Amino acid sequence: MCGILAILESTLTPQELRSLALRQSCRLRHRGPDWSGVFQKGKSILAHERLAIVDPQTGAQPLLNEDKTVALAVNGEIYNHLKLHPFIEGHTLATKSDCEPILHMYEKMGEECVKHLRGDFAFVILDTKTGHYMAARDPIGVVPLYIGYGEDGAVWFSSECKAIREHTVKFEAFPPGCYYSSKSKSIERYYVPQWWDEVPPPLSSATKVISDAELKSIRESFEAAVVRRMMCDVPYGVLLSGGLDSSLVASIVSRHAETRTEDDGHSRAWYPRLHSFCVGLQGAPDLVAAKKVADFLGTVHHEFYFTVQEGIDALRDVIFHLETYDVTTIRASTPMYFLARCIKAMGVKMVLSGEGSDEIFGGYLYFHLAPNSDEFHKELCKRIKNLYKFDCLRANKSTAAWGVEVRVPFLDQEFLDTAMSVHPSFKMCSKDRIEKWVLRKAFDTPEKPYLPDSILWRQKEQFSDGVGYSWIGGLKAHAEQEVDDASFALRSETFPYDTPDTKEAYFYRKIFETMYADKSTRESVSHWVPTWGASKDPSGRAQGDGVHVAAVEK
After folding, report:
1. What does the alpha-carbon distance between residue 245 and residue 243 come to, in Å, rounded to a whole number?
2. What does the DSSP 8-state code read for residue 268?
3. What does the alpha-carbon distance between residue 178 and residue 166 come to, in Å, rounded to a whole number?
4. Which residue in 113, 209, 365, 383 is deepest, having the highest Cβ count within 10 Å?
5. In angstroms, rounded to a whole number, what is the distance separating the alpha carbons of residues 224 and 143?
6. 288 by DSSP, 3-state: which?
């Protein structure tokens, strides 16, 4: 992942504007440590901090059209870039970057270009011929983007809050699946899939049993999504927790790793040995399961360990990079933050991961408590729509802190269309049916198994649980020591907005406020809590009522 910053229609002098942009863009350099670029014209400027993954030699940004009148700063990957070439015939590509076609698509069809992109992205285009500009974010919000407004009327865009918070009177997260047009000065939605209205799809079978054709469609669509995300010109790997989602991703990557997916497997891969990475406390459930998967797949497997104290010591840095005080996000991000640092130290820049599956298939253990299939489906839709506030934010920012990119094939647009067309009754879990049963069944192919049965049918662990059950307990115990009863009793006076309801939440909020005391950053924070169940603690083990037990039906 890269870092982008744009300041548009500023009243500063050109020299002042450039100096300001350089200072603020520097705050994003952890996201893109490989190169820095700037394009300035009049009252507007684009800055880019590059993490070079596709076309490292010539793909530096901002990218320009042939006569250098249209500039593009983008953070992300366009997986269908080769399929866009027929749309841009007559243009000369200056690079092999997957993002350059965006420029010429814009020249051909204006703001409508974003509807043709398939990938994970946030970008800003500055058209100096017309004076217009646009910004856009991918459909689900895999890549972060913020929009802000300066006192002088300037419009700001940034990959993270920290680059714009001090120079805007207001900013907010840019909504996924939308674009901003300087012509209308408004944000328009371009992504409206069939499931957006939260109405369940019709039952596909009179017998109310999912068909083999539907299971095959799920399997083939997801495999295609993974292969698309193997587009890479630098060493890459997979995050492997040993849970179902990351294990399926690793399995599919291992089947295609020996050839380059960029040319449909016609040439040998540049980095054919697949490396897998796992993190946890000593003896963590994830470490054991991940090793089993790695042995089955034959990956070059790497285990990394941290202690509860090391995690506590890192909390300030983690909160700085995440720009949130949400308890769930911080718990899960700290191990991922450590893992990304170790991955980068080994020379790996990109990893594939399993985020998004739980929202699509109802994998969280509280989904066992859904009252009916209609409510189950509505909850899935809401969770997917809010992924950019939680799992996408965690995966992106905790790894971008060390200049590592995470790709998430479960959030592929085509796969989402396939998965969300499955009737929710086939996804629902019960005491007799394990969560994500339909996904497991789709990959239950004994003739050529993707995974060992013990992994394919392993029950969900929340990531913050799976790295070691003492991790959350250690955080709670530390918060008890740090936050005395008297201070906690006055929490509504100390934090009148979004008052913390536990000492752990109070402790994170206190750290957050030392770095981000402004209103906009505070209001950008959301909280992940289970919708059903007595406990609002997001830990899977906290759900109780017999949910955290093995429930297997094949």
Report:
1. 6
2. B
3. 25
4. 365
5. 21
6. helix
**Confidence (pLDDT) at 129:** 96
pTM exceeds 0.85 for this model: yes
User: How far is the C-alpha of 35 from the C-alpha of 270, rounded, in Å?
Assistant: 23
Over the stretch 483-493, which tens digit does the pLDDT of each residue have? 999 999 999 99
Judge contact between 509 and 501, C-beta under 8 A: no
Distance CA 41, CA 9 (A): 10
The answer to whether the CB of 340 falls within 8 A of the CB of 277 is no
The number of beta carbons lying within 10 Å of the beta carbon of residue 71 is 27
Cα separation, 234 vs 348, whole angstroms: 7
pLDDT value for 237: 97
Q: Are 269 and 279 in contact (CB under 8 A)?
A: no
Radius of gyration of the chain (CA): 23
- Annotated catalytic residue: which of 2, 113, 342, 429? 2
CA terminus-to-terminus distance, the chain: 39
User: Would you say 352 and 249 are in contact if contact means Cβ atoms under 8 Å apart?
Assistant: yes
At 457, list the tokens. 């049918």
Helix axes 244-256, 285-297, angle to 10 degrees: 20
Beta bridge partners of 352: 238, 407
**Confidence grade of residue 259 (pLDDT, cut at 50, 70, 90):** confident
Q: Residue 505: which of 271, 272, 328 has the closest Cα?
A: 328
| 58 token code pair | 């010539």
| pLDDT 10s digits, 97-110 | 999 999 999 999 99
**CA–CA gap between residue 180 and residue 488 (Å, rounded):** 42
* 342 among known catalytic residues: no
Q: Exposed (0-12), middle (13-18) or buried (19+): which is 18, by Cβ within 10 Å?
A: middle
3-class DSSP state for residue 248?
Answer: helix
Amino acid at the residue 337? Y
The Cα–Cα gap between 427 and 177 comes to: 25
DSSP 424: G
pLDDT at 260 over 90: no
- What are 379's two structure tokens? 């909850």
- C-beta separation of 4 from 122 below 8 A: yes
**pLDDT at residue 144, rounded to an integer:** 98
Cβ(94)–Cβ(159) under 8 Å? no
In angstroms, what CA-CA distances link 388 with 120, 421, 435?
Answer: 12, 22, 23
Averaged pLDDT score across all residues of the chain: 93
Would you place residue 465 in the very low, low, confident or very high pLDDT band (cuts 50, 70, 90)? low
Which pLDDT score is estimated for 188? 98
Ramachandran category for residue 76: left, alpha or beta (phi over 0 → left; psi -120 to 50 → alpha): left
The burial of 506, by beta-carbon neighbours within 10 Å (0-12 exposed, 13-18 middle, 19 or more buried), is given as buried
8 Å CB contact between 72 and 112: no
Predicted confidence at residue 265, as pLDDT, reads: 80
